[in-house]
Amino acid sequence: MQLHGKTALVTGSTSGIGLGIALALAEAGANLVLNGFGDPTPALDHVRATGVKAVHHAADVSQVEQIAALIEAAEAAFGGVDILVNNAGIQHVAPVEDFPAERWDAILAINLSSVFHTTRLCLPGMKQRGWGRIVNIASAHGLVGSAGKAAYVAAKHGVVGLTKVVALETATLDVTCNAVCPGFVLTPLVQRQIDAKAAGGLSPEQAKHALLAEKQPSLEFVTPEQLGELVRFLCSDAARQVRGAAWSMDGGWTAV
Ligand code: NAD
User: Fold this and answer.
1) Domains of the chain: which residue ranges?
2) Does the annotation mark 152 as catalytic?
3) Of the residues 78, 104, 152, 221, which is catalytic?
4) How many CB atoms within 10 Å of residue 46?
5) Ligand 1, atom nearest to 185 Cα
6) Among 49, 150, 151, 178, which residue has the fewest nearby CB atoms (within 10 Å)?
């Protein structure tokens, strides 16, 4: 129970990768603040079944004042945030000249600016308590580009850059900041891209294979459980000197 007594806040943790990470941290003993849209009951039940305490706050992380309310709720429930996992994210695929300006603004707000706001609000408490771990869920698209994903690629490159700055500003403390860069994970965010391919006449299995074959040499999806294990490691004492990293878990995507 390496994280017993710690509190973890995972944004966007009612489903997908965020829930996988929340479960891994709960299994290590951390109390959890979940966040995200939809009915939180299944995620809360799942996390509480590990024996830790968990609450949910429905803040929309595109709104600065709602982020402040989320951090305040975490402090009220558990006394502070020791582990901050910035995971909430959305996607939109379109060529630059057709990219809706409103989608650009939303992706930058949710995928990048929210990371700045949660970090600036949680860091003072981490410094005061002398311990903290910040893990930002970036993407292979934080390291390389793909056609059609202007806002997502720009935001995720921004997350990798922000991660380096926060790591340098906390370098002499037991507070670390790292990014994780997953390849394709089979979540609703990616299922929508598979459905778009299947609409072109492929079977669901062919569409999955086609998506992987474009980018991911292993031809297998990364799983939320694998990402949870990596985040748990980054929160451990053994990872104290891992600082400012952009850690790939992408089936070889960025090795080519
Ligand atoms: P998902 O769509 O399954 O889950 C996203 C979560 O974020 C949900 O809980 C949703 O409710 C929440 N969310 C969305 N908008 C929000 C908002 N404005 N405020 C608060 N919560 C909000 O997505 P996922 O695939 O699990 O993605 C999680 C993270 O991993 C994202 O940052 C994504 O960019 C990143 N990522 C995903 C993949 C992949 O292949 N799925 C690959 C690399 C990186």
Assistant:
1) 7-185+223-255, 186-221
2) yes
3) 152
4) 15
5) 40
6) 49
Among 91, 185, 225, which is best to mutate for testing ligand 1, by the most ligand atoms less than 8 A from CB? 185
DSSP string, 34-66: EE-SS--HHHHHHHHTTT--EEEE---TTSHHH
Q: Is the pTM of this model over 0.90?
A: yes
Of 11, 17, 195, 254, the residue with max ligand 1 atoms within 8 A of its CB, to mutate for a pocket test, comes to 17
Query: What CATH superfamily is the domain 7-185+223-255?
Result: NAD(P)-binding Rossmann-like Domain (3.40.50.720)
Q: Is the pLDDT of residue 125 over 90?
A: yes
DSSP state of 253: G
Output the CA 212–ligand 1 centroid distance in Å: 19
- For residues 108 and 101, is the Cβ–Cβ distance under 8 A? no
Q: For residue range 44-80, what is the model confidence (pLDDT) as tens digits?
A: 999 999 999 999 999 999 999 999 999 999 999 999 9
